[in-house]
Amino acid sequence: MSQESAIESFKKFQQSWIEQLQHNLNHLRSAQHHYRNSVTGSEVLLREAVERVMEHCREYHRAKCATTEKDVIGVMAAPWSSALERSLHWVGGWRPTTLFHLVYTESSILFESRIVDILRGFRTGDLSDLSPSQFRVKFVKGRTVSELQCETVKEENAITEELSEWQDDASELVMGTTSDVDQRIRRLAEIVHRADDLRLQTITGVVELLGPLQQAEFIIAAVELRAGVSGWGTSHDRRRTSDI
């Protein structure tokens, strides 16, 4: 398979993947609704719906990993993304620490909107039950969201430094003064793999730290954020093209 066909194949995969993601999200919303209404067996259905989305994320990770092996430069260029999305990219994709900002923001918004009920002692099991300060002290499965965030920031910084070192040496590729082009490209692929692994590890880690309803709310918010950025970016590209 040529490099061009590898990228084209991934573009097609991504289109179908996004369509299936929306289908899985609708299923998750339905399971969330049943859970909120205490329907018998709803917790099992909700957990299954969450796992379906997570497996879908793992499928994307595997497909991107295979494409990166074939054409890492094409993956870094991300021709399937809008200009806005590419401007926000970090090592070929979204920055993992964005997820923590999303968790804290969603938690704060819900906490403020339901503060009266919370002060009365009512608990819904959603993200409003955990304020940002509670996230820092709540231990689940041996660690806190804050600890996971610190680990992610540390790994992000290490990957950023590694990419910076690769870019510092890139002038030799452009000038043709190096004979180990394949080795340099391979090193870049390893950096992208490391970044993609961190993305998957981070979203998996966050989900594991939350309760069933919180997991659903977090996933829905993350997908909606992605869709919003993609939609706005695509619209902006179309307007820019029409103005030329």
TrEMBL record:
- Record the organism: Thlaspi arvense (Field penny-cress)
At the top level of its lineage, which domain of life is listed? Eukaryota
Report what the protein is called.
Answer: DOG1 domain-containing protein
Please list the residue ranges annotated as the DOG1 domain: 7-239
Swiss-Prot/TrEMBL GO biological process terms: DNA-templated transcription
Residues spanning the signal sequence = none
What InterPro entries does this protein map onto? Seed_Dev/Stress_Resp_Reg (IPR051886), TGA_domain (IPR025422)
Entry GO MF terms = sequence-specific DNA binding
